[in-house]
Amino acid sequence: MIQMVDLHSQHQKIRTEIDAAIKSVIDSGRYIGGAEVDGFAKELGEYLGVNHVIPCANGTDALQIALMAVGLKPGDEVIVPAFTYVATAEVIGLLRLKPVMIDVDPNTFNIDVNQIEKAITKKTKAIVPVHLFGQSADMFSIMEIAEKHKLFVIEDNAQAIGATYTFPDKTTAKTGTIGHIGCTSFFPSKNLGCMGDGGAMFTNDAELAGKIKMIANHGQSRMYYHDVLGVNSRLDAIQAAILRIKLRNLDKYNSSRQHFASLYDGLFSKNQNVEVPARAAFSDHVFHQYTLKVKNSRRDDLKKHLESNGVSAMIYYPVPLQKQLAFKKYHRPGSQFPVADKLCEQVISLPMHSEPDVEIIEKIGKTLNAFFGV
Predict the structure, then answer these.
(1) Is pLDDT of 356 > 90?
(2) 245-266 pLDDT tens trace
(3) Which of 151, 140, 168 minimizes the C-alpha distance to 117?
(4) Shortest CA distance to 66 belongs to which of 128, 142, 112?
(5) Could you say which of 158, 249, 315, 339 is the most buried, measured as most Cβ atoms within 10 Å of its Cβ?
(6) Per-residue pLDDT tens for 65-108?
(7) Residue 16, Cβ neighbours under 10 Å: how many?
């Protein structure tokens, strides 16, 4: 079976470095914090061009801590896209805030900026754009709206680490560094993944960075002095050591993903039954997922065909947030999500990672095309 992600092949190419890094941490006896965690935070900050990087235990914690750091109160509203992984909205509800879902762009699958202002009320305090599948949401428009209405912007960058956003004046910035706080996950299958759980937050605001650090460490300003209620969320030293090595390879990994995405595009260029991923004019695409839209209501049958022929395929996401039972109480009467609803019936993601070869991509393409007689 061709897997969605081949972490084993990626590991073999850097195994000697990884083994040495892990041994070094074990020999040091410093498993929490220390030089590896500090070194990774510094190097990731330099890569992203951001002043402060605060590592944490996972991407969900990163989102929760970021929301805690901006001082929102129970009942405050936070705007999120309806088509995303549950963690984006889950942490909002856990903090007794109200996730307000809006529809997404039918091409990029990211939050529809034209609908944001319609959703803003006196209780709205923040926007959480998600850079879904590997390319940026329209951050220039989002930041304009946020500034106008005095809202915080917390970027969910778990799927787009390394992607670059281009502003109208042609200046650029890495995703996750444009809003007030950026959050990411280092789950193993991510473009920059560790060998367990891990996450981080980024900001250029020194005051926010200080709050984030306190909250992530039991609310401590210094040992045993707790200024605020916090959590315990840490990236361990072994994962940091692994991530330092993988960070040096991130641009290469993303370039490889982009290359194989282009090969997929070519293979499906004559197949009128599927629509290849759109590329936004303002962002490159680092292809955490290569996600097609399948026409003619044949998506589920296509998935069965691929899997019966040894090709893994995934549906991200089969149910939009507004139809999840956990979020039923947040649904605004009369609100509609035609794009998110349709995407949940159409999308299918094919194997995509940093190590596939041309023959594998061609096999996947031929297998998919054969289902449609192309």
Answers:
(1) no
(2) 999 999 999 999 999 999 999 9
(3) 151
(4) 128
(5) 158
(6) 999 999 999 999 999 999 999 999 999 999 999 999 999 999 99
(7) 9
CB 162 within 8 A of CB 256: no
| Dihedral Cα 136, 68, 99, 104, nearest 10 deg | 0
Enumerate residues 6+ apart whose C-beta is below 8 A from 288: 133, 134, 159, 160, 190, 191, 257, 352
Distance CA 164, CA 174 (A): 5
CA distance linking residue 55 with residue 62, whole number of Å: 8
The residue type found at 313 is: A
Structure tokens that stand for 8 in this block: 């084993």
pLDDT at 278: 97
What is the token pair recorded at 32?
Answer: 């929490």
